[in-house]
Design goal:
The protein is α/β, with parallel strands linked by helices and 273 residues long. It has one domain: Metallo-dependent phosphatases (Purple Acid Phosphatase, chain A, domain 2, 4-Layer Sandwich). The protein has helices at residues 13-22, 45-54, 65-75, 85-92, 96-104, 130-144, 149-156, 170-183, and strands spanning 3-6, 31-34, 59-61, 109-112, 117-120, 186-187, 193-194, 209-210, 223-226, 241-243, 253-258, 263-268. The protein has a five-stranded mixed β-sheet, covered by helices on one side. The chain has a four-stranded mixed β-sheet with strand order 4-5-9-10, with helices on one face. Helix 6 packs across helix 8 and helix 7 crosses helix 8. The two termini are 31 Å apart. The relative contact order is 0.18.
Amino acid sequence: MSTYAIGDIQGCLGAFNNLLEQIAFDPTRDRLLLAGDLVSRGEDSLGTLRRIHALRDVVTCVLGNHDLHLLALASGAANVREKERDLAEILAAPDRDILLDWLRQQPLAVDLPDFNALLVHAGVPPLWTAAETLSRAAEVQAVLRSEQADAFFSAMYGNSPAGWSDDLSGMTRLRVITNYLTRMRFVDMDGALDLSRKGEAEQAPPGFMPWFQHPHRRATDVRILFGHWAALEGRVSESQLEALDTGCVWGGQLTALRLEDNRRFHCDCHAHR
């Protein structure tokens, strides 16, 4: 049995299938961990979601910002833009309810005790412990699975407040948790987010740093598996961190990390677009 953690697929079905062939994935014995952003921008988001749903018994995944956006579109909280034709195809599919109901059940963070690891999309806020991360992710998960889901999607968009406070409540609290776990790249010393910058780690705005370089990062006792930040190209120097988004949708690679021996497998994505 092998456990493979895979970075952002983003609808790149050809690359995903190729990577599964490369690792000789066997659903009768192996397991997949997906770091979110299953859909959006690739050549076949609907086919990707169907493929993952078919493998759901051996798949553990977290929601990324693009997955949440798809769910928000389905709820009517946002309108489909011209460039989102791949998401519109999902919304028009005859099996949309089956696929989206499954997607809505997925968490924002997963504990992997066998590997002393956490699976998240964007990362772990530097001032949160692993236990706090799981607890706060569970708050969002509970609402997504409830009758309040549509209200959450209507309140989900926005960059404020930028920082965490234990006093936050209601949909504001859920929005901040969601921003940290699905959109975070740069933070300041107080842990507040800058969500406007998407470049390389060295391009932090003044007063900000990559979340994983914060000098007082608390969740250093657990391995963190994350995606979201394609500009890192899968490279971080900090120990206990595994950056899995290697920019497949941008013509880079799709990466799988086998957790049993830390071996990485890569599929060049430009050939499958």
